[in-house]
Amino acid sequence: MVRLTSLAFLAGFVATAVYASSSPDLAAKKERAMAQLSPAVQRYLATLDESEYELDLDGADEDEGQLAERADSSLQDAASGAWKGCKNSAVSISFDDGSYDYRQNLLDIWTGGHQVSFMINGNNYRCGYDAASVSGNRRALAAGHLIASHSWGHYDFGQAGTSHDIIDRQIELLEEMTLKTLGIVPRYFRFPYGSFAPETSQYIRKKYGYRIIQWSDDSGDSSGAPASQSIAMYNRFKKGEQHLVLNHETYESSVKQVAPAAKKALDKLGVKSVTADKCIGATVSPYKVKTNPQKRDSSWTCEGKPRPGQPK
Ligand SMILES: [Zn+2]
């Protein structure tokens, strides 16, 4: 009995010694990565064993400053930290405001090594908890496309009266939705309408560890440009140019007319679209957390949560 106790004590001592010599750094990284998650996500992870989820420990530390230094300074806005172009002549096609009715069409189009980014909402054209939204987002994720946050309700963060409480709610509800339905929490964020004050962008970057992705080229679909005009834009692209392109998956013509023509234009140049994280040269996971998606329950709803464009 005494002997067993001593052994147990000794084992405990050895484990403690190993812990002390190798993990303060790791513990600090975990703490930092955890602190960048919304409270709802932190609460859920606390119910899991550590082996059941993967925290991205490097993304919190991957120095965006270094990424920027290696880039043309015109690619990242100094005041807001928002990226407005791709490094290394990359081309990155993105689709905002989904998941929506044409998502499956888009996924059928962007094959053959092209990877695109979906800046998704929780409650915009359709509720993100609807079965069709969930399956569209899951299929995109499985195919290696990027899922990024476009806020819960497509809120205009540039408007007067945008408090930290409003920002926190818009961030948290989307993180909760992607965690439950997809088993991920995004690290990439695009402001609806591209509308924000630099202070808001810095708040989101610092508090939540988000990287802010804007665009260099606008297909013009949200301001009413005809498909022919958007297609002409893609046809002007030349090999060796960078393009970070804004499109919306909620317009039928953007999906059924422009997207196939865009893919054809890139194929003709021998250029593959890359996801937004690759566009800025990041090498770590584009998700703050990865785990298993949860099972549908009564919390999978947009009821009682902010309506599109609404603060509360
Ligand atoms: Zn949008």
UniProtKB/TrEMBL annotation:
- Offer one example of a GO biological process linked to this entry: carbohydrate metabolic process
Q: Which residue range or ranges hold the NodB homology domain?
A: 89-285
Instruction: Please state the protein's primary subcellular location.
Output: membrane
> Cross-referenced Pfam families, in alphabetical order?
Polysacc_deac_1
Q: What is the protein's membrane topology class? A: Lipid-anchor; GPI-anchor
Q: Where is the signal peptide?
A: 1-20
Entry keyword set:
Carbohydrate metabolism, Glycoprotein, GPI-anchor, Hydrolase, Lipoprotein, Membrane, Metal-binding, Signal
Q: What is the lineage of its organism?
A: Eukaryota, Fungi, Dikarya, Basidiomycota, Ustilaginomycotina
Specify the superkingdom: Eukaryota
> GO CC: one term?
side of membrane
**SUPFAM superfamilies of this UniProt entry?**
Glycoside hydrolase/deacetylase
Which named protein is this?
Glycoside hydrolase/deacetylase
Name any one GO molecular function: metal ion binding
**Cellular compartments annotated:** Cell membrane
Q: Where is this region: Disordered?
A: 288-312
Which cofactor(s) are needed, names only? Co(2+)
Q: Which InterPro entries match?
A: Glyco_hydro/deAcase_b/a-brl, NODB_dom
